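Q: Could you predict the 3D structure of DUF1772 domain-containing protein?
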Amino acid sequence: MSDSLETIATVVMITGSALLAGITFFYSNTLMPALAQRPVREAIALIQKTNVVILNPVFWLAFGGSSLLSLGLVISTFFRLDRPASGLLLAAALVYFVGMFVVTVAANVPLNDELAAVDPESPAGAKVWERYRARWIPWNNVRLLSSTASVVLFATYLIRR
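A: Sure. Here are the predicted structure tokens for DUF1772 domain-containing protein:
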């Protein structure tokens, strides 16, 4: 990868990581605490709807594009570790890919799928909701910390290289 292309990819990753950090921050800081103050059936119904609405082209561009680009940076940087500050770039891309993409696919999406299958009005739905909140929020916080850390690491790489 040329220096110019690497710079562009890093700036794109800073932008994508920051966008996803903002989304995950909103969920952990605002949406989930607000839903905890609502009746369970309302909370379930709102999250079910939110999980459908968020899957739009802009989200896919930010999430999917950043995930693919971070994987590409992991691969290309791995073969160029002799370059100045390349360890920072590799760390940034790995932190994002594992902390955002892998955690989303392995933890948050299965929990979302489980919640999508319940009736918000049912007693079973209330049980799933409590289990969902107890598991989903900590995993979302991992995504928040990972995407935020990757912004810092990508920016530090640009400064130090």
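Q: Anything worth pointing out?
A: The chain has a mean pLDDT of 97.
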